[in-house]
Specification:
six-stranded mixed β-sheet; about 30% helix; disordered C terminus; tRNA_splic_SEN2; alpha+beta
Length: about 325
């Protein structure tokens, strides 16, 4: 699959200038990530900007794509004065002060918010004034008493790629100990049964310069972007099917039935995307239940592409 052989993807209407300066892959300082049991989170703002802009890795823990601080400031995170992050009602600010007294506040956070008093809130409710007008003319700007930080959440495949292939990430557990590659593959395979074929597919797609994001919201395994989600809409919804000795392995992957094709094709067509199925083939004699040996022999895996856009599910129905 080559970018030049596929239709040009639909560009975004606007790309924020702070997100336009990108590189294909991250290089430089090694970032620190925390394994949460479900994903790996990067907390340092500079590292978040580095990984999210160079290669399009991760997404914000409370955002649809880039962490909000990166979307506002790009690589200048931590070096420019931030605008207030949002509009809070007075009661919300007071509640956060209670949290700060109970749990402690973040020192040197510098976070600020617009504060809406009760009388201003009533004016908005009756339509006498808009929130944007209040922000320009009336709302006070106060320090956020209990700043809730947003981190960069990396998928398991992204974390392994950054650790194993690029050596730009170290993953720690909650006790501060650094997890080795052996520790990581054990933990990742334990919480995601198809981690090995999924990682093999991830490497295959990365070797073809795709920006890879989670396909969960469309029911798939991955979404593929050219250059990045700030530039184009996704080109493909990717589904992974696992084989060994010519037979589908349902123990570590999905088994696509004929009617599944109809469902996924409809989702892809209504969202202006194409459907791509990656067939990941285990080497002969390799035990899929042994993640260490699978990772060691990863270069022996074979990956094939299937484009089922015109699949006739009725003609191939068997029952």
């Amino acid at each position: 699959m080559n970018h030049a052989l596929r239709p040009v993807p639909k560009p975004k209407k606007f790309t924020p200038p702070v997100l336009a300066n990108v590189d294909p892959l991250p290089t430089g300082p090694v970032a620190i990530g925390l394994f949460t049991g479900l994903s790996v989170e990067v907390c340092d703002p500079a590292a978040m900007a580095h990984l999210s802009l160079d290669g399009g890795f991760g997404q914000g823990t409370s955002s649809r794509s880039f962490p909000k601080v990166i979307a506002r400031t790009g690589r200048n995170v931590g070096r420019v004065r931030r605008n207030p992050s949002g509009v809070f009602h007075r009661r919300q600010v007071e509640r956060r002060r209670e949290w700060a007294g109970k749990f402690g506040s973040v020192e040197g956070s510098g976070g600020t918010v617009w504060v809406m008093e009760e009388d201003e809130e009533k004016l908005v409710e009756v339509g006498a004034v808009s929130v944007e007008e209040l922000k320009r003319n009336a709302l006070k700007v106060e320090e956020d008493p209990f700043l809730i930080r947003e981190n960069l959440s990396l998928s398991l495949e992204e974390a392994m790629f950054l650790v194993r292939e690029l050596n730009v990430l170290k993953v720690q557990s909650f006790d501060g100990s650094v997890l080795t590659e052996k520790n990581l593959v054990e933990k990742f395979a334990a919480i995601k049964r198809d981690f090995i074929p999924s990682y093999a597919a991830f490497l295959y797609l990365k070797s073809r310069n795709w920006i890879i994001r989670s396909g969960l919201k469309f029911g798939g395994d991955f979404l593929l972007y050219q250059k990045g989600p700030q530039f184009f809409h996704a080109s493909y919804i990717v589904l992974i099917q696992t084989y060994q000795s010519g037979k589908i392995l349902t123990t570590c992957g999905r088994n696509l039935e004929n009617y599944d094709f109809q469902c996924f094709n409809r989702i892809a067509e209504t969202t202006a995307k194409d459907l791509l199925i990656l067939e990941v083939h285990y080497p002969e004699g390799l035990d899929p239940a042994d993640p260490h040996e699978c990772l060691r022999r990863l270069n022996e895996f074979r990956v094939g592409e299937v484009f089922p856009k015109h699949h006739n599910y009725v003609a191939t129905r068997t029952g």
